[in-house]
Amino acid sequence: MYNSLGKTAAQCGAGLNLGIALSSGVIAGVVSAVISHPADTLLSKVNKAGAGGDGSIVSRMMNITTETGVVKLCTQGLGARCVMIGTFTALQFGIFDSVMGALGVSKFQFHKPS
């Protein structure tokens, strides 16, 4: 994000750095929510009594996926999950950035080794 602004973290003020931390948290949270949502949804359905019929966990998961449909399994409740996880992650990134700044600790920056 700093590269797109053409600045380094040291050149930006505390407000802009906090905004970048919050934005990064939202992006990281939404990406992780989208990636983990299908598996978590399937796990929630498997844990309900009687869901997917009888048999092994794998056969029950296949039955639930067939009954629900892959698209619905991947998208049902995804919006709310993105808002929730995106907000939580942004707050964590913001708290981390604020505490590091308050303590005067410099954050390390990844860079290409020479």
UniProtKB/TrEMBL annotation:
Pfam families: Mito_carr (PF00153). Keywords: Membrane, Mitochondrion, Mitochondrion inner membrane, Repeat, Transmembrane, Transmembrane helix, Transport. Solcar repeats lie at residues 16-102. It is a multi-pass membrane protein. InterPro entries: MCP_dom_sf (IPR023395), MCP_transmembrane (IPR018108), SLC25A3/Pic2/Mir1-like (IPR044677). GO terms for molecular function: phosphate transmembrane transporter activity. GO terms for biological process: mitochondrial phosphate ion transmembrane transport. PROSITE patterns: SOLCAR (PS50920). It is found in: Mitochondrion inner membrane. GO terms for cellular component: mitochondrial inner membrane. Gene3D superfamilies: Mitochondrial carrier domain (1.50.40.10). The keyword Transferase does not apply. Belongs to the mitochondrial carrier (TC 2.A.29) family. This is Uncharacterized protein. The lineage of its organism: Eukaryota, Sar, Alveolata, Dinophyceae, Suessiales.
